[in-house]
Amino acid sequence: MTNALSRFDELNLSRLNLISALDQAEETEWDVNFEADGRIVRVRCEALPKYAVPHGLDSDVSSALLNLYIESGEPEDGRFAVSATTLLKLCGWHNTGKYHGLLRTSLERLHTSSFSVSGGWRDHPKGRWTHAKFHFIESLDFSSADGAGAFDERTIIAGRLADAIVASIRGGYIKPLDTVFMLSLSRPRTRALYRILDGARYNPANPDKPLNVLDVNLIAWADQCKIPSSVPGNIRRSLQAPHTELIERGYLKSVDVTGRGRQQMIRYEFVPEFTPLDPQVAARLASYGVADGTVRKLMKQHARAFLTDSMNRFDTLVKSGVIVIKKTKAAALMHLLTHPDDYPYPAIPVKPGEVVVKASRMEAMLEAPSVTSEFTGLNPEQAAEKAVRRLNLFYRNRIPITLLDGVRRALLDEQLDVVALMEDAMRAVTQDQRDEFARELKERVEGELAD
52-77: string of b/e by CB count within 10 Å (b at 16+)? Predict the structure, then answer.
């Protein structure tokens, strides 16, 4: 699992922006009212004093959780399970004690802060505007090495996203989010503003084509960004550094402020040629050592299918010895991409009666394919993460978070075989013997770790 799994944003969250575009915040509540297409919309947040309202780095965590949920097959009950180590990677953070602490605090803040949206939450499948009240994370559990609940390398995090968010994602009310670009931005404030801008570019009733120009009132935009100031000069200063970076990085073409006092307007002009990266393709290109600038150039020049097919062909030809790496993988792959006709197209054998199934993004594959094929090519950490997510999906209330912690540790230490474990787990599901499997797994893990 890599950062590349983050590739979508839920449109209600990005448009309404529930996370303040400030690096630090002390406020325990905010209340924003605005008019949209004749509707009066009110959005409110209340937070515990010890945490303050969601802000800054919380945008990274919320984005990572949304995409973790999507990549897990969008289970109807909104549940997710992930190790702290993997969630840090999805956030683009370092795996250190400092960031373990920041992650714990951020999750607590997203769990304890309450949000209410009056008349502004879009029920896209029905074409209606609704009311919604929720915590971003409705339930939260995690394993810990001490009584204080500190995160460490073994910590497993499980939780449940808000029903309103789950229904919106399952209803398809999402948009692409270039998280490779977002996580490369230098400050939490810039990353948050990028996410807000990228959501504001879309028409909520027809989210198909983004705008190239966006005009907003300065004071109203401060409310949208949850900047706790009504002084125009303070607002401009808060936005100045993020504006500069987004222009320098090629996302914004220009930012112009006109007018006086509270009537000041901001005009954002976006770079039409800015290519939102498909994070999966971008990360795969990067895994060969292709530089970020070259990745963006390739994705502007070529279709996703061409790049994917070319990388698949490259891997096959390297494995078969047709391509011999003389310098670097990146150089060899680039030569294939620029001279595709110089390389043979390997035949893809298809067994008699074999059916190729394209998995839907919107539904979980409850009929699991070959367990062996699912885990082929994964390193121990990737295999352990996938096994934990799969067990959490099929054994919701039967396998507690502490046991998932132990399973992951045993898999990483190679005390359990992941394929054998998951074959037993899926067999128990089909035979309605999940309780028996959960009991046996507990005894087995405790026995392995005690040795």
Answer: bbbbbbbbbbbbbbbbbbbbbbbbee
Give the C-alpha distances (Å, rounded to integers) separating 196 from 16, 40, 322, 338: 8, 20, 47, 37
- Phi, psi angles (nearest 5°) of residue 175: -140, 160
- Cα–Cα distance, 103 to 96 (Å, whole number): 11
Closest CA to 113 of 47, 16, 56: 47
> Crossing angle of helices 188-200/232-248, nearest 10°?
90
| Contacts of residue 290, Cβ cutoff 8 Å, sequence gap at least 6 | 298, 330, 333, 334
Token pair belonging to 120:
């502004």
Residue-wise pLDDT for 61-72, tens only, equals 999 999 899 888
DSSP string over 167-210: HHHHTT-EEE--HHHHHHSSSHHHHHHHHHHHHHTS-TTSTTS-
Per-residue model confidence as pLDDT tens digits over 393-416? 888 789 999 999 999 999 999 899
How would you label 121-158 residue by residue, b for 16+ Cβ within 10 Å and e otherwise?
bbbbeeeebeebebbbbbeeebbbeeeeeebeebbbbb
What are the domain boundaries of the chain? 3-270, 279-342, 371-450
CA separation for the pair 184, 177 (Å, rounded): 13
Please tell me what DSSP assigns to residue 17.
Answer: -
Residue closest to 156 by CA, chosen among 139, 144, 174, 146: 144
Neighbours of 431 (CB within 10 A): 10
- 8 Å CB contact between 8 and 170: no
Length of the chain: 451
Q: Is the dihedral of CA 70, 311, 87, 405 positive or negative?
A: positive
Residue 4: pLDDT above 50?
no
Q: DSSP code of 128?
A: E
Residues 6+ apart with CB under 8 A from 73: 363, 364, 365, 393
Residue 268: beta bridge partners?
Answer: 214, 255
> pLDDT for 125-160, tens place per residue?
888 999 999 999 999 999 987 777 889 989 999 999
How many other β-carbons are positioned within 10 Å of the β-carbon of residue 318? 16
Residues 373, 422 contacting (CB under 8 angstroms): no
Please identify which residue in the block is written with the tokens 């999805």.
Answer: 90
The reported pLDDT for the residue numbered 338 is: 85
**What pTM value is reported for the model?**
0.72
